[in-house]
Every structure is written in C-alpha cells, then in structure tokens.
Amino acid sequence: MKKIILLFAFVSVFYSCLDDDNEVSNVSFELLPIDEYTIPESFTLGEKATIKLTYSLKNGCYYFDNVYAEQQADKIIIGVRAVIDFTSSVCTQAIVQEEYDYVLNIDQTENYTFKFYKGTDANGDAIFEEVIVPVN
Q1: d(Cα 24, Cα 2) in Å, to the nearest integer?
Q2: Is the whole-model pTM more than 0.90?
C-alpha cells in the first residue's frame, strides 16, 4: 500500500512540473542597449574594477533583470537584460534612465576588450562599441 501511495505521489509531482503548452507567458525578456559607460583607463591585476553602466527602460512595463555579460574568446559583450511585464494594466510611457555598477575581478594579464551593446541597425544586426583596457 505504501508503494502505491509513493508511486501516486511521484506521478503527481512529476505531472505538476510539466509545462503547459497552451499557457501564454506574461513576461518577456529584452536586451537593452548601454546608453553610456564609465570605465577605468587601466586595470590592476588581482583587484576589482567597477564599470558604471547607464541604460534606459523603455516604459513602465520594463524592469531591470540583470547585466548580460558574455565572454567570447578574448572579448566581453555587455548589455542590460530587462523584463517586460505584460500583466500590468497601467504602463507609464515615461522612459526611465538607470545606472548599474558592474564589478569585474581582474584576473588576466592580457588587455580586456569590451563590446558594449548599442542596439541594432536597420537590418536587425547588433551594434557594439568596442573598448580596450590595458592591465597593469
């Protein structure tokens, strides 16, 4: 009897974890461009460096989620990931500019190359602003 109850509990938990394909998500994610950034002229090996990022939330339905930082070979791509909440019945149309301090541990002796996401062009291709920072 205990085995049947345990099996029934397992099946119930498993079934409850399955995604419902008919459900529509109430949120979406979007990569936002970096409006401005402040970065040190050089880094010191073994220390932490702070990069100040300024970005704009498009309206009141956009919320900061996190900083998107992806290392590709010898470059770091940086953008801001926002959540768009479709459940809100009142979204102000005001653009809100915010700042974020991105902290990076300097653990390599080679120069750091950053590619700051600036949006997309008319063809939908990503635009980046590249900055190289030497390490002392």
Answers
A1: 38
A2: no
State the Cα–Cα distance between residues 22 and 25, nearest whole angstrom: 10
CA distances, 91 to each of 96, 99, 102, 112 (Å) = 12, 21, 28, 39
User: 36: closest CA among 51, 48, 57?
Assistant: 51
- Separation CA 129–CA 60 (nearest Å): 27
What's the CA gap between 27 and 135, in Å, rounded?
40
pLDDT by 10s per residue, the chain, length 136 = 444 444 444 545 555 555 555 555 688 999 999 999 999 999 999 999 999 999 999 998 999 999 999 998 789 999 999 999 878 667 888 899 999 999 999 999 999 999 999 999 999 999 999 999 999 9
Beta bridge partners of 103: 50
